[in-house]
Amino acid sequence: MLQAHSLLWHYLWLAPHIYGLLLVALVWRNHLQKQYPVFVFYLLFASIDGISLYVLDVAPGIDGNIWWGALWVGTIVEGMLKFAVIGELAHHLLRSWPSIAKLGRSLVSAAGIVLVLIAAVAAAYSAPDSAPWFIGGAHVLLQTIYLAAGGLIVSMFALAAWLHIPWERPAFGIALGAGLVWCEHLAIWALIAGGVVRNRTWVDFANMGTYHISVLIWYYYLLVPEKKRPSKTPPKDRSDDPPVDPPSASSSSGAPQDHEETLNDWNRELERLIHQ
Amino acid sequence: MTLAYFLVVAAVLAVVSLFYLGISQNFQVRSDANLAPRIQPIDIEAFRNLMDPAEREYLRRRLPGGEFREVQRRRLVAMAAYVRTASQNATILIDIGNQSLSASDPQTAEAGRQLADNAHTLQVNATYALFRIWAAWLWPHFDRPTITILNSYERLNGSAMLLGRLQNPSAPVRISATS
Fold first, then answer.
1. Residue pair B68/B60 in contact by the 8 Å Cβ criterion
2. Are A108 and A33 found together in one domain?
3. What is the rounded CA–CA span in Å between residue A18 and residue A89?
4. Contacts of B90 in chain A (CB under 8 A)
5. Which domain holds residue B91?
6. ipTM of the predicted structure?
7. How far, in Å, CA of B130 to CA of B84, rounded?
8. Angle, helices B44-51/A256-274, rounded to nearest 10 degrees
9. A181 vs A172: CA distance, rounded Å
10. Band of pLDDT at residue A240, cut at 50, 70 and 90
11. In this predicted structure, which of A38-47, A226-235, B91-100 has the lowest mean pLDDT?
C-alpha cells in the first residue's frame, strides 16, 4: 500500500491539488478572493505546480533534471507566496486594532529575523549528500522555507493568544491549515536534509497526506458558514429601580444581573480614578 | 543529525501549540458569557502611592542603603501584584469587548472594539511594566516609575464607561447616585 506509484500514492499526490483548484473556484464564486487574494493565488499556484510535477513524474521520457528544475522554480515562487500569505493573515489579524498593529508587526518581523538566523544555522549544519547539488540543495531550501514560514505562523498564533485577538473565521482556517502542513513539512525536510532519512517512500505519504488534511481544513473554514450563537436578550431597563450598592466581584453568583452589577462596580472604580 | 531531531521536536511542539492556542482561544472567547464577575477591583490610590517617584525618593533619603533596598524590593513585589491584576482585568475586558463586536447595534460594537483596543494597550504596557519592575527588583536604585500603565488604565476607563452605558443606559444615573 505505502509504495511509490500505488493507487494511494497517485490519489494523495493528485487529489489535494484538484480539490485545491475546486476550492479556488468555489471561493471565487463566494467573492472571498477579494478578502484573501494572496491566499487564493497561492492555492492556485500550488495546485497547478503540484499537478505539473505529478505529470512530469509519471510521463515517460521526461529527464529527471527537468523534474528537479521544475521543483526548484516551484519551490522558490511558492516560498515567496507563503510569506505573502503570512503578511495577508497578519494584516487581517491586526487591522482592527490600531493600538497594537505596529507592535504586532514588529514582533512578527522580529520573529522572522530570528527564524531566518536559525534556518541559516540549520542549513550550514545539514548533512552532506552524495547526490547532485540540486537535490541536496532543494532539501536544504525546503527546510529553510518551512522553518521560517511555520515559525511565523506559530508566532502569530502566540501573539493572538497573548492579546486575545479574535481571528476572522477564514483567516483562522487558512492559518491553521497552513501551520499544520508547513510544520509537518519542516519535520520531514529536516530529517531528509539532516541525513536521518533518505529515499524512503513514507515521507512522501506523510507530506501528501498532511497537505490533503490541510486542504480539507481550508474547505471547512472557507466554505462552511459559522454557526450563529443564540442572541443575547436585550438589557433590562432598570431606570425605575432604586439605586443599590453593587456587589463585590467575589460575591457574584454569575447571574446576568450580577454580570451588569459587577461591570458597574468596575465602571465606578474607573470613574473614581478619573476624578482623582 | 542532532539539529534534525531538534527541528522535528520543535515542529511537533509547534503543531500541538497551534491547535492548543488556536482552538482554546476560539472556544474561550465564544463560550464565556460570564466574564465581568471575574474582574478584580484594584485599590487605585495604593497603586498610585506605590508608583509615586516622590515616595520612593523620600524613602531613599530617609533610610540607610541596605534597608532602602529591602523596603523598595517589598514595594516592587506589591507593585508587580497590582500590575498582574491590572493585566488580568485587561484580558477580561478584551474578551468583553470582543463579545460586543457581534452586537446588532453598531454603536455597541464600536464601543466594544474601542474597549478591547484600549485594553490591548494596557496589556502590552503591563507586560512592559512587569519587566521593568523585575529589573528594578534586581537593582532597586535604578527604579523608574511605570506611569504608562496608569495612563492606559485611565484611557480604559472611558471605553468601559461607554460600553457599560450602551449595554445598560440606566447604569450611569445610578452610579452618580451612589458615588
1. yes
2. yes
3. 24
4. none
5. 39-168
6. 0.78
7. 8
8. 40
9. 14
10. very low
11. A226-235
Whether A14 is in a domain gets the answer yes
Q: Does the structure show a pLDDT above 60 at A264?
A: no
The three-state (H, E, C) secondary structure of B86-131, written as one string = HHHHHHHHHHHHHHHCCCCCHHHHHHHHHHHHHHHHHHHHHHHHHH
Cβ-contact B147, B127 below 8 angstroms: no
Of A191, A157, A158, A192, the C-alpha closest to A177 is A157
Give the whole-angstrom CA distance, residue A168 versus residue A182.
21
| Cα–Cα distances in angstroms (integers) from residue B56 to residues A79, B72, B152, in the given order | 54, 8, 22
Chain A CB within 8 Å of residue B45 CB: yes
Residue B5 included in any domain? no
User: Which of A99, A125, A264 lies nearest to residue B117, judging by beta carbons?
Assistant: A99
Fill in the DSSP letter of residue A196: S
pLDDT of residue B144: 60
Question: Is residue A239 pLDDT above 50, yes or no?
Answer: no
> Does pTM surpass 0.80?
no
Judged by DSSP in three states, A225 sits in coil
Contact B37, A258 (CB under 8 A): yes
Per-residue pLDDT of B143-170, as tens digits, reads 565 556 666 665 665 666 556 655 555 5
* Four-residue CA torsion sign, B132, B133, B136, B138: negative
What does the block give as the cell for A136?
541536496
Query: Does residue A58 belong to any structural domain of this protein?
Result: yes
Angle at A89 between CA A110 and CA A176, to 5 degrees: 100
| Statement to judge: residues A140 and A274 lie in one domain | no
Which residues on chain A are in Cβ contact (under 8 Å) with B172? 267
- Does A28 reside within a domain? yes
Residue-level pLDDT at A108: 92
Contact A166 B29 (CB under 8 A): yes
Q: What does the alpha-carbon distance between residue B107 and residue B110 come to, in Å, rounded to a whole number?
A: 5
Q: Which of B36, B124, B177 sits opposite A103 (nearest CB)?
A: B124
* DSSP 8-state class, residue A235: P
Query: Given the C-alpha cell 476607563, which residue does it identify?
Result: B157
Q: How many residues does chain B have?
A: 179
**CB atoms B164 and A264 under 8 Å:** yes
The H-or-E segment that residue A159 falls in is helix A133-162
Q: Which domain holds residue A50?
A: 7-223
Residue A262 · residue A249 · CB < 8 Å: yes
